[in-house]
Amino acid sequence: MPGLSIIIINYKSWSVLEKCIKSIWSQKTNSIEIIIIDNNSNDNQIINFKKKYNKCKWIINKRNIGFAKACNQGAKVGKYDHYIFLNPDTVLEKNCLIKLKSKIDNYPESILSISQEDSRRNKKFPYGHFLSIKTFNGVSRSIFRFLNCENRLKDNKKPWIETDWVSGSFLCISRKNFNNLNGWDEDYWMYYEDMDLCKRAKNIGLKVILINSISCTHHHGKSSRINLETTVKTKTHLIKSGILFIDKHYNGIYQKFLKFMFISSKIFYLLLLYPFSKQKRLILNNLIFNFRVEEF
């Protein structure tokens, strides 16, 4: 069975990170390693964690360099032929990695992910269509899925599905394919880097597969929503990265029209909630000042 280098990017997620690590080490399989990149949590907890989990490889950054760049850091020191990029707020089910290893060889030219549930055992949808004129906001996505007769609940009952992109919260790729793609695009500081990676993979003929028969629990947002300031920064980066994706993957009139529709829909939503939400007011302020949002 293939070996797995599991790469986790941490930012002040210590309580959930500990559960994540324990769920990995409890897997009854060999040939795995855990590589943890701490993106300048700067809260002095790293010392105790390094002692307690000394079997893990640790990389400590002096500043928060973003998700994509930190993932590339981890990949450079990984020793196995397959990488799993894993969020710290995930917990793997029993035998998750054994099941995954048994299926990797069935999808040699693919990016793989697995089914996810939230802490209340509700099914999540860590996949989707690429950002386009059909999917630039929630309304357009719903209409597109309706017209395509898509049913995600039925899709979740299939052993696996092929999709456009899968979430970077659990993303498995071979070292060979990762290197052929030149890794994660470090122009993305946060968000859309997973969609970008899958888009580039599709462009060179790779498939993107979500395996429903394997699952993990994902306590979403434990790093990105720890307080109002952090939430505002992450939500601003979400919009900024969406525009970056459009700039990188489209051109001409289509690109200009899609960018206009994407930005307009975001501004309309923020204006609608502006009187009632301090968070939305702060995000809109960041947009007006040309995304002048500091890193964490």
Detailed description of the structure:
- With 296 residues, the chain is of the alpha/beta class.
- The protein has 2 domains: 4-218, Spore Coat Polysaccharide Biosynthesis Protein SpsA, Chain A (Alpha-Beta Complex), CATH 3.90.550.10; 228-288.
- Helix content is 42%, strand content 20%.
- It contains 11 helices and 11 strands.
- It has a 5-stranded mixed beta sheet, with helices on both faces.
- α1 links the parallel β1 (4-10) and β2 (32-39).
The 3D shape can be described as globular
What is the total tally of β strands? 11
Please work out how many helical segments DSSP would assign.
11
Order of helices and strands: EHEHEHEEHEEHHEEEHHEHHH
**Name of the level-1 CATH class of the largest domain:** Alpha Beta
Helix content: 40-55%
Q: What is the typical, i.e. mean, pLDDT?
A: 92
Q: What name does the CATH topology of the largest domain carry?
A: Spore Coat Polysaccharide Biosynthesis Protein SpsA, Chain A
Strand residue content: 15-25%
**CATH homology superfamily name of the largest domain:** Spore Coat Polysaccharide Biosynthesis Protein SpsA, Chain A
- Give me the side-by-side strand order of the main sheet: 3-2-1-4-10
Unreliable spans: none
State the end-to-end CA separation: 39 Å
The CATH architecture assignment of the largest domain turns out to be: Alpha-Beta Complex
- Structural class comes to alpha/beta
What's this entry about, in short?
The chain is an alpha/beta fold. The protein has helices spanning 14-25, 46-52, 67-77, 96-104, 138-147, 152-155, 175-180, 193-203, 228-249, 252-273, 278-288, and strands at 4-10, 32-39, 57-61, 82-86, 90-92, 110-117, 127-128, 160-162, 165-166, 170-174, 207-218. Helix content is 42%, strand content 20%.
